[in-house]
Design brief:
Layout lengths: L12 H15 L10 E7 L6 E7 L1 E3 L2 E6 L12 E6 L2 E10 L2 H14 L1 H7 L11 H9 L3 E7 L1
């Protein structure tokens, strides 16, 4: 039997409305208000073939974009798969790499959490005083489906 913490709830009406507003802003000339921390990623549903566009927080790292998430959209991705990304007002293509192993997550999560502290609070991932990830927090987040999607522009 799964624990209550691992049960996924569909997005609330408030969340769906907020996402719609953010999507509109990121596609508009006013994108600069949000595009320093948020981008849009468009993925295809594996079963439905339908496009899903999600606003997500990101961090620049070694020529790639890192997105920490527990959201279901990332389950549609396969390593190396092409996705569309709207980054700072421009549409680009990127190759996706889904990272789920603890060692790589421990190395990359501090980058994501430092760039976007709100993400760290939302995901329940804190940093130690030396800047490394709190391993217990990371393991709890992983148990709830946490992954980092590395988007490599092509």
């Amino acid at each position: 039997m799964s624990s209550q913490a691992s049960v996924r709830r569909p997005p609330s009406r408030f969340q769906r409305t907020g996402d719609a507003v953010v999507r509109s802003l990121l596609r508009s000339p006013l994108h600069r208000v949000l595009s320093g921390r948020l981008l849009l990623v468009t993925v295809l549903g594996r079963k439905s073939g339908r496009e899903y566009t999600n606003p997500v927080g990101y961090a620049d790292h070694d020529g790639a974009l890192l997105v920490g998430t527990t959201a279901g959209w990332r389950r549609n991705l396969r390593d190396g798969e092409a996705v569309r990304v709207r980054l700072r007002g421009s549409e680009i293509r990127a190759r996706a790499e889904v990272i789920t192993d603890e060692a790589r997550l421990a190395a990359l999560a501090p980058v994501v959490v430092s760039a976007n502290p709100i993400h760290g609070r939302y995901a329940g991932i804190g940093l130690e005083p030396d800047g490394t990830v709190d391993r217990d927090d990371l393991r709890r987040a992983m148990a709830n489906g946490y992954a980092i999607v590395r988007l490599i522009p092509v």
